[in-house]
């Protein structure tokens, strides 16, 4: 998006909104075990925080994750997921059976930590893809990434 | 007596009927609308109908959402909603996001190539070339 | 005949079929519905003991059915890459 549509009110307001949006996204991610929440919702919130900056400030935004950054983030998320899924092979477990990982006292707590790791991967994937979608779909014709 | 029967059907089956009608609204939009963007929106309406169908199937009267209360070790089956359709629909929502994104990207490509999103006009300009 | 009216008529017929078919479904809120019988009680009873996660939806999504979630995250990453290839490589419109 070449042009920003931020007025001075939006330009001031989003600076106060974005940090809390990202904090809330991380809260939704790490509190997903104990309340409503999880990887997808956190990814949507974190992606929205980045998209909001681009919507208000346009391409002159100082803080932006471009298309390549978003794709790298999404692929990194999928790789984290796959790595956590393949890790139990070393300790003789099945694919995605993180109860055997020696990271906690009991298998149930190891599973809770494995779930947190997997949700982190999902969060990064969804966040990256939302950023990529917004960045590409709002781009003008013929515009390239600088 | 008659009021009791009507209330039974409306509370027990009214949700299913409304969801079926929502699905058909989406299907009608896909079939009868000429604008491709409206077709994508109708596709989203259909996805919402399918998601509501599963959530309605997960419903148990008098239950709460699938988060165990503090201090409870073994969940009471009669007190919590069925968590499986909720988890499946969380996946379906993200797949719907992916479908919408790819569809919008294709529509952007069509618009840049033909200058319009009206389906008959797109076909007409396609044959002119 | 206008295609909109024709399709609306056909869809009205399907709607009547749906409303009749919905009478064979369990009523909403039924504790004995088939969807609440097979694996769902085990998820509700054992989720906390097996995964130490209070959110049952999270446990089902990321532990019991994590293979489905793996497919889903791959779908969305591939969708992102597909959008890059559809839109990202930008050429002028007359070259297509």
Identify the notable features of this structure and list them briefly.
heterotrimer; A: 146 residues; mainly alpha; 64% helix; elongated; B: 129 residues; Helix Hairpins; 4 helices; 74% helix
Walkthrough of the structure:
The complex is a heterotrimer of chains A (146), B (129) and C (96). Chain A has helices at 8-30, 39-57, 67-86, 107-137. By secondary structure, chain A is mainly α. The radius of gyration of chain A is 18 Å and the shape is elongated. Chain B has 129 residues and is mainly α. Chain B has one domain (2-60, 77-128): Helix Hairpins (Orthogonal Bundle), CATH 1.10.287. Helices cover 74% and strands 0% of the residues of chain B. Chain B contains four helices and no strands. Chain B has helices at 2-32, 36-58, 83-114, 119-128. The model of chain B has no long low-confidence stretch (mean pLDDT 89). By secondary structure, chain C is mainly α. Chain C has helices spanning 3-22, 40-51, 56-64, 66-88. Helices cover 67% and strands 0% of the residues of chain C. Chain C has four helices and no strands. Chains B and C meet through helix 1, helix 2 and helix 3 of B and helix 1, helix 2, helix 3 and helix 4 of C.
Most residues in contact, chain pair and counts: B-C, 56 and 52 residues
Report the structural category of chain A.
mainly alpha
The whole-angstrom Rg of chain B is 21 Å
Low-confidence blocks of residues of chain B: none
Q: Which geometry of chain A do the CA atoms define?
A: elongated
The geometry of chain B reads as elongated
End-to-end CA span of chain A? 13 Å
Radius of gyration of chain A: 18 Å
Poorly predicted residue ranges of chain A? none
* Total number of strands of chain B: 0
Mean pLDDT of chain B: 89
Strand percentage of chain A, roughly? Answer: under 5%
Count the beta strands of chain A: 0
Give the helix/strand layout.
The complex is a heterotrimer of chains A (146), B (129) and C (96).
Chain A: H1 8-30, H2 39-57, H3 67-86, H4 107-137
Helix pairs in contact in A: 1-2, 2-4, 3-4
Chain B: H1 2-32, H2 36-58, H3 83-114, H4 119-128
Helix pairs in contact in B: 1-2, 2-3
Chain C: H1 3-22, H2 40-51, H3 56-64, H4 66-88
Helix pairs in contact in C: 2-3, 3-4
């Amino acid at each position: 998006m070449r042009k920003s549509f931020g007025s001075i009110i939006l330009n001031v307001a989003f600076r106060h909104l974005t940090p809390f949006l990202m904090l809330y996204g991380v809260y939704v991610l790490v509190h997903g075990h104990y309340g409503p929440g999880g990887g997808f919702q956190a990814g949507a919130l974190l992606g929205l925080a980045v998209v909001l900056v681009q919507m208000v400030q346009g391409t002159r935004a100082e803080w932006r994750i471009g298309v390549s950054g978003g794709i790298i983030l999404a692929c990194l998320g999928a790789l984290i997921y796959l790595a956590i899924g393949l890790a139990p092979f070393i300790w003789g477990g099945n694919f995605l059976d993180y109860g055997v990982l020696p990271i906690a006292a009991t298998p149930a707590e190891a599973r809770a930590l494995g779930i947190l790791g997997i949700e982190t991967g999902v969060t990064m994937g969804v966040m990256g893809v939302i950023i990529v979608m917004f960045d590409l779909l709002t781009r003008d014709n013929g515009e390239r990434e600088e | 007596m008659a009021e009791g029967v009507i209330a039974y059907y409306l509370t027990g089956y009214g949700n299913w009927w409304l969801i079926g009608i929502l699905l058909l609204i989406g299907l009608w939009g896909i079939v009868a609308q000429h604008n491709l963007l409206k077709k994508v929106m109708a596709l989203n309406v259909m996805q919402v109908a399918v998601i509501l169908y599963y959530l309605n199937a997960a419903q148990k009267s008098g239950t709460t959402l699938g988060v165990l209360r503090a201090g409870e070790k073994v969940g009471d089956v009669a007190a919590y909603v069925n968590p499986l359709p909720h988890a499946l629909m969380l996946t379906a929502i993200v797949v719907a996001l992916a479908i919408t994104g790819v569809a919008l990207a294709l529509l952007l490509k069509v618009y840049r190539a033909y200058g319009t999103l009206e389906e008959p006009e797109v076909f007409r300009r396609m044959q002119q070339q | 005949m206008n295609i909109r009216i024709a399709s609306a008529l056909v869809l009205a017929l399907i709607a009547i079929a749906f409303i009749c078919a919905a009478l064979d479904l369990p009523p909403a809120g039924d504790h004995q519905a088939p969807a609440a019988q097979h694996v769902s009680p085990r998820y509700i009873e054992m989720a906390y003991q097996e995964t130490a996660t209070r959110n049952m939806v999270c446990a089902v999504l990321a532990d019991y059915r994590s293979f489905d979630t793996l497919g889903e995250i791959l779908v969305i990453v591939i969708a992102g890459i597909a959008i890059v290839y559809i839109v990202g490589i930008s050429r002028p419109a007359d070259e297509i």
